[in-house]
Amino acid sequence: MINGLRTVAYPVKDLTAAKEWYTKVFGAAPYFDQPFYVGFSIGGFELGLIPDGTPGTTGSTVYWGVDDIEAEVARITALGANIHGAIQDVGESIKTVELADPFGNVLGLIYNPHFDLKAVR
Q1: Through-space distance between the first and last CA atoms of the chain, rounded to whole angstroms
Q2: Angle in degrees, CA 86, 89, 90, rounded to 5
Q3: What is the pLDDT of residues 67-93, one digit of tens each?
Q4: Is 7-119 in CATH node 3.40.50.10090?
Q5: Which pLDDT tens digit goes with each residue over 2-53?
Q6: 45-51 and 4-12 as β-strands: parallel, antiparallel, unpaired?
Q7: Dmax of the chain from CA atoms?
């Protein structure tokens, strides 16, 4: 079952500068800070920065929360999606995957055992 929105990820060319800028914009320091990903907890949701990406105005990858990422990948691919990016363990028991829907869009799924539903506002 899809639980709802969890993470919005923005590609950036300069991770250090982007981390500093988003820290100022949201008034919050990152809770997850690695060379491959920086995550901020914003109002119970996550804003993520991914280095070496190509920023653009055509959209960001939105990750929908799931309780069992493998089962959801199997279910959604059976409905016609294709694997766009394999399931990855990104650290601290968090897993992500990107699927290509039948219409050319990216559908991101995330399993994050640290997500605090009580913090959603």
Answers
A1: 21
A2: 110
A3: 999 999 999 999 999 999 999 999 999
A4: no
A5: 888 889 888 898 999 999 999 998 999 999 999 999 999 988 889 999 998 7
A6: parallel
A7: 43
